[in-house]
Amino acid sequence: HLDQFQKIITSDFKPYGLHRARKQHFFENEKIVSLRKSGKRPCFSYSDFDCFVSQTFFVIQTSRWNMKFLTGILNSTLVAFWLKYKGKKSQSDIMQIDAPPLLSIPLPIFADIAEDKVSSVIGLVDDIINGKKNGIDTSSLETQIDELVYEIYGMSQDEIQVIESNL
Prior knowledge:
By secondary structure, the chain is α+β, with helices and mostly antiparallel strands. Helix content is 40%, strand content 11%. It has a three-stranded antiparallel β-sheet with strand order 3-1-4, with helices on one face. Helix 1 (67-74) packs across helix 4 (115-133). The radius of gyration is 19 Å and the shape is globular.
């Protein structure tokens, strides 16, 4: 059946293009995984084990940031607000998480962030991971991360009010 479409199918796995090749290192070691298309708010998940996901997920790996700290920043209300207004939208206003919007998020300069704030965000991310594993509500921990992120970015109460009322 697929022989009739051979001229239009493109893939690294010829002749039928059943899937496109992805480099194995993206699925190994420490990473952040996110659905490419998400509803109201994107969700970024930290993974420190090998997990192989389809192309409906976006995989983030970097050595420039502590991955747990970056997970906390990416899951913050501030970044969700930014992606809502500056990110890419697909059909029916669904957020699309791809490289261009992610790379354009105005991240703070890591070296300029107070070490206690970095440690606090990492600790809260650890607590959230453990809480989720045990079925515990982590919304208060997520709120604490939001407060730290607002401090890191130097947000005023008026700015925070605008962000939280428009998300």
